[in-house]
Amino acid sequence: MRLVVIAGTIATIVSLISTPILIRFLARHGYAQAIRASADGLHYPDHEAKRGTPSMGGVAILIAVLSGYFGTHLLVWRPMTASGLLILFLMVGLGLVGVADDYLKIFQQRSTGLRARTKLVGQAVVALAFAFMSVQFPNADGLTPASMAVSFLRDTSLVLPMAVFLVWVWFLITATTNGVNLTDGLDGLATGAATMSFLAYVLITVWQYGQSCSLVASESCYPTANPIDLSIIAAACAGATFGFLWFNTAPARIFMGDTGSLALGGGIAGLAVFTETELLLPLTAGLFLITALSVILQVGSFKLTGRRVFRMAPLHHHFEMLGWPEIQIVVRFWIIQGLCIGAGLALFYAEWVRS
Q1: Parts of the chain with a pLDDT under 70
Q2: CA 123/CA 225 separation, integer angstroms
Q3: Structural domain that includes position 115
Q4: Quick one: which of 31, 35, 43, 146 is 20 to 30 A from 342 by CA?
Q5: How many domains does the chain have?
């Protein structure tokens, strides 16, 4: 538990210090994201007040996460593990895809950023590399960071062949990263929801460490590789997003951009794969799934029937168009995320009690 506190503290402090420095740098050079405006019959919520707000804040989040992880290992002189380093590889790799997207939004003033196909290819390259390496590097107990079995609250009996496993992990990562990306449309919404998700994985990984098969020989033990290092990563991510939220809450002084949303989504998905709770993602990342489904439903309905289900997708913009204040939408969506995570943790604990 001491390592979790150290990692979270370092990441929070670094985030609180580095974010305002990044804000001043971006503002001084006029690096702000383009804002979509209503035109040609297309109506968007009025976000004119956000024009000029710096973007690419995900850089500060990544710096804080890396500081929290490496700083903790240096302070306690603890060896790093493949599990922790692979999660960082996934987050930084996806963050670089986000940097390219944010570059176009900021420097080219193209509000849509990278073309969807180009972004998906970049995500796929990073996700597939992560998936392949996740079943390499066995630890002292012979456990690799990931298992090729599909998991819910722990591994199931369904073991995937390598090719299918790569596609499965790619799907989980792509779905989660794009869910976070779509949710990042209101001040603090995605940041606060991501903080909750990472705190959930702090609890899950700490519990798995205490009930690890290397420490407790029982039928209910968890064969998770390197759970305490996953706790350090989860705590660092939670601290980084928590510190960033201070500046990202309404009215936001900085946006995380795709640099942050893709990296955070990758971190959440990677933790789900490594903690063997893949099918629990619809609850630990509940708000992101709901947001993504609202877009899928909107697009599908319009293509099939020519009618839209919502006034605008993603879902939070629908409520904006109904006249709800931004802060009210954010807080209520945070409550929904909290309820989803509470249900997920309850299922996780109930399964352990039953087993």
Answers
A1: 32-52, 107-113
A2: 25
A3: 2-280
A4: 146
A5: 1
- Is 329 within a domain? no
* Rounded (10°) CA dihedral 344, 347, 348, 349: 120
Q: What separation, in Å, do the N-terminal and C-terminal C-alpha atoms of the chain show?
A: 25
- C-alpha to C-alpha distance for 56 and 170, rounded to whole angstroms: 24
Flag whether 315 is in a domain.
no
**Single pTM value for the model:** 0.93
Phi, psi of 259 (to 5 degrees): -55, -45
Residue 246, classified by CB atoms within 10 Å of its CB into exposed (0-12), middle (13-18) or buried (19+), is middle
In a domain, 33, yes or no: yes
Report the candidate in 293, 246, 264 with the shortest Cα–Cα distance to residue 194.
264
What is the pLDDT at residue 220? 83
Q: What is the pLDDT of residue 302?
A: 87
Main-chain phi, psi angles of 212, to 5 degrees: -70, 145
**What digits encode the pLDDT tens for the residues 310-339?**
888 899 989 998 989 999 999 999 999 999
> How far apart are the C-alpha atoms of 26 and 105, rounded to whole Å?
13
Sequential DSSP letters for 104-130? HHHHS--TT-S-HHHHHHHHHHHHHHH
